Amino acid sequence: AVVRIVAIGDSITAGQCAYTDNRGDQVPGAQVYTYRFHLQDHIDAAGFELGVDYDFVGRNRGPFLGCGIIEPVLGNEATVSGSQPIPGFDDVQHEGWPGATAGLIATRLADGIGQPVPDIALLMVGTNDIFEIANLLELPWEPRPDQIVPVVEDFRAVIQSIRAINPDITILWAQIPPCGFESGFCANPIRPINLAIGDLAVEMSTPQSPIVPVDQFTGYDVSDLWDRIHPTDVGDRQIADRWWEALRPVLTEMVAEKAANS
């Protein structure tokens, strides 16, 4: 029995190879992978006591920002020029699209992600949407309700696209982490976006395709962002920990179900 997992999102899902210091210089030897690397460590550390194998699926392999040229092409695996494999991280497929808003991700998922289809989706979208909103605002960067509505509709479209891939999929939906820009530039748009995610997770959850909300915001330290947006390795570990808290009971239930049907 194999439980297939797809990680869906933007550059936080895709990850990166190296980060820069506060002067903009690349830190020699600094490696920031992706939360997926640490999440797979969690699954492996369970010793497969769950009695099931897992497989991350998706059209992109890697890509890690800073590892080379990224050419994500819909329907093809991303081409990463000059990237190096990460020891111990072999299951690198995903649906992370750097720079993508929720609307763009919904479009890229609309035609499916190929076979095999996932049983579980780890969804983290909205960071690029908050920047699009914030860039239209002035101090104190308080978004109007009408600026939030289109993002909410794009979120709905993402869920619909995921369910078109597998109507029985379980979706773990993350509220987005904070970002490190001051004066409310990030915080003011993030608050209503995260509230909308929490509300939609409850509203759109069904017995056939449950949605599990995952709080990736509370307690996240913005000092664990290397460019005030993307996580350092410490930040990725925290994101992976939060995913694992929500994923483990879902895996346990899914393994029991697969065993009963085998």
Write structural notes for this entry.
- By secondary structure, the chain is α/β, with parallel strands linked by helices.
- The chain is built from seven helices and nine strands, in the order E-H-H-E-E-E-E-E-H-E-H-H-E-H-E-H.
- Strands 1, 2, 3, 6, 7, 8 and 9 form a seven-stranded mixed β-sheet that branches.
- Helix 3 (102-109) packs parallel to helix 5 (145-165), helix 4 packs across helix 6 and helix 5 crosses helix 6.
Topology record:
Elements: E1 2-9, H1 11-14, H2 35-45, E2 53-57, E3 60-61, E4 70-71, E5 79-80, E6 93-96, H3 102-109, E7 120-124, H4 127-134, H5 145-165, E8 170-175, H6 187-204, E9 211-215, H7 233-261
Parallel strand pairs: 1-2, 1-6, 1-7, 7-8, 8-9
Antiparallel strand pairs: 3-6, 4-5
Helix pairs in contact: 2-7, 3-5, 4-6, 5-6
Distance between the termini: 8 Å
* Count, helices: 7
Order of SSEs: EHHEEEEEHEHHEHEH
Structural class: alpha/beta
* Strand fraction: 5-15%
Radius of gyration: 18 Å
Count of β-strands: 9
Largest sheet: 7 strands, mixed
Helix content estimate: 25-40%
Q: Which overall shape is indicated by the principal axes computed on the Cα atoms?
A: globular
| Unreliable residue runs | 68-83
Instruction: Write down the overall mean pLDDT.
Output: 84
Which properties best describe this structure?
7-stranded mixed sheet; alpha/beta; 7 helices; 262 residues; globular; two-stranded antiparallel sheet
Task: Kindly summarize this structure in a few lines.
With 262 residues, this protein is α/β, with parallel strands linked by helices. Helices cover 38% and strands 15% of the residues.
